[in-house]
């Protein structure tokens, strides 16, 4: 697996670390449990990390030195793709040919690296975009910076090259086809999951006591990277609106996470907003929490809000429901799949503050309805496990491998024509011209039985 711009071992909920980190780590662990060992290449962002770390049985994280450890903006990462790729290729070259059976790239930057690795190693490239520039740019928060055109170009290239693509939802699959011209036959829809062993219902009072929260307040939590795209301000404004009409309301907003993306430009913006709205004493901020504390946050809350402008899935929504906490979410992207409107929470169209305040008030003022949603939330979340995701990925990998002509290539084959002396096999000792170069992409595709 390639995860160039963020390590699966980083604490999610701040900076560049979020759902993708959780996804990469959890799917790798599950794949390893099923007998598919995984090596994850990521860019080292500290001189303290060793070159290789074991993330769990059968999962290695390789921290590749490419560019400065600190201070490199995500938008400058394309400048470091060459050194990163060189190190990935060198690493593979230390092994016997055929060390890797498949490369799975996460996010477009890794897609660019995986594309070269695939050509060099002659193994299939599976690509998961996680987010898409065209989708993000179509739903920007007011005043937020659009994703650069270079990203969209880079995504298009990877989507054209990938042997298979994994989309989180059918909607994302459609976006890949309609916005990026992806070949629908090469897309597998595999929903992400939650760690259901960890995110389980529990004692709310104990969770509140552990977090230092009052036992008698109604608590609405936001969990995630704090940036305009995630719209925590919509929750703060909606809470202020409710408190304006009913100042005696026993309401607390709990914000868990750290600044990220364009939110880094004004890291205190949310604190300032709460002050401007006069609700500083009703808002509690917690820094990013590790999973064993985060589960207590979900249990402590009456409701979790996910007001994002765009969300390719929304792991927080599933994790919260898995603990029995209903979710109030924006009706965008994967949240329409993650939350069952009226059953496990509510979906709100748009980001109009009175609509959010009304939805929030409706749920908080109807405790019996909220309670009924709790059980259904747990049932719904049970459909989303990382085990299930890993099964979907293995099916996608199998399709990628079979589409790659591995069946025939597994046994050495004498080819016709000018390269009749060349042989193909899965271990990769194939299709090299004199000097060891792949002679032509179209040629080796044909030789490898890759049909588009
Ligand atoms: N997360 C965490 N600690 C925090 C906040 C978030 O571990 O304090 C994790 C959370 O458990 C979830 C992920 O970060 O798995 C966020 O994923 P999501 O899909 O909701 O948002 P993304 O970061 O992908 O935009």
Folded structure, characterized:
With 452 residues, the protein is of the alpha/beta class. Helix content is 40%, strand content 14%. The chain has 17 helices and 15 strands. The chain has a 6-stranded parallel sheet, sandwiched between helices. A 4-stranded parallel sheet has the order 4-5-6-7, with helices on both faces. The chain has a 3-stranded mixed sheet with strand order 1-3-2. The longest helix has 18 residues, at 386-403. The model is unreliable at 406-452 (pLDDT under 50). Uridine-5'-diphosphate is lined by residues 12-13, 18-20, 22, 223-225, 256-257, 288-289, 291, 294, 313-316, 319.
Uncertain spans, ≥5 residues at pLDDT below 50?
406-452
- Name the ligand types: uridine-5'-diphosphate
Shape: globular
Distance between the termini: 23 Å
Count the E strands: 15
Gyration radius, rounded: 24 Å
Helix content: 40-55%
Counting helices, strands and paired strands, the structural category is alpha/beta
Summarize the structure.
The protein has 452 residues and is of the alpha/beta class.
Key traits:
452 residues, alpha/beta, six-stranded parallel β-sheet, four-stranded parallel β-sheet, 17 helices, 15 strands, 14% strand, binds uridine-5'-diphosphate
Task: Provide the fold topology.
Layout (H helix, E strand, L loop, with lengths): L18 H15 L4 E6 L8 E5 L2 E6 L16 H13 L9 E4 H15 L3 E4 L4 H6 L10 H13 L2 E4 L2 H11 L6 E3 L14 H8 L6 E6 L8 H14 L5 E6 L12 H8 L6 E4 L4 H10 L2 E4 L8 H8 L4 E4 L4 H4 L6 E4 L4 H12 L2 H15 L4 H18 L2 H4 L3 E2 L8 E2 L16 H7 L5
Parallel strand pairs: 1-3, 4-5, 5-6, 6-7, 8-9, 8-11, 9-10, 11-12, 12-13
Antiparallel strand pairs: 2-3, 14-15
Helix pairs in contact: 1-15, 2-3, 3-5, 7-10, 8-13, 11-14
Uridine-5'-diphosphate binds next to helix 1, helix 10 and helix 11.
